[in-house]
Amino acid sequence: AQRVTQPEKLLSVFKGAPVELKCNYSYSGSPELFWYVQYSRQRLQLLLRHISRESIKGFTADLNKGETSFHLKKPFAQEEDSAMYYCALSDTGGFKTIFGAGTRLFVKA
Amino acid sequence: NAGVMQNPRHLVRRRGQEARLRCSPMKGHSHVYWYRQLPEEGLKFMVYLQKENIIDESGMPKERFSAEFPKEGPSILRIQQVVRGDSAAYFCASSPRTGVSELFFGSGTQLSVL
Predict the structure, then answer these.
(1) Tell me: the pLDDT tens digits for B24-67?
(2) Is the Cβ–Cβ distance between A20 and A37 less than 8 Å?
């Protein structure tokens, strides 16, 4: 069965510290992985997708098929990074996207 | 482009009443997805629709819930005889076509059942 697990509900770091939001998945095929973000009072929006292999707002995520993980990382957290982050998995063909429970990132000054 | 529009933003119903949630996808998008978010939980997939077709309703409760996406007009998520456990935030998302996996989300409808 498809499943996305985000083990941390809340992650609190100081400004300038590295941050890593964990995501593990289970899927029998070749999934497409995403990170979505929801800033305060804004809609849920795409942050990045694994096939793009790009850095967005300083965030990167590498798909590790051996560990079935797609952790989100940023070397130096900023206060404006404080938000709710969701890891998501889409099945082949993009018919259905499932989400993890989300991790709230709080960056302290 | 106004983005995905959901209304109402807040909906209060008494137990046993019907709730109708509307979603207008982004212009040019013909695929609509509904998700439910319960407190302290993530987004749970409910249903995926294309114009006039239900493609995947594997996340829909078997009773009281239904969804449609007519040729004209918004997609409707309908909950009959609501119960307190239906209280949640319901989000709609759209995409332009199959295989384009990025979803564009609405602001959600917060349903409260008294």
Answers:
(1) 999 989 899 999 998 777 899 999 999 889 999 999 999 999 99
(2) no
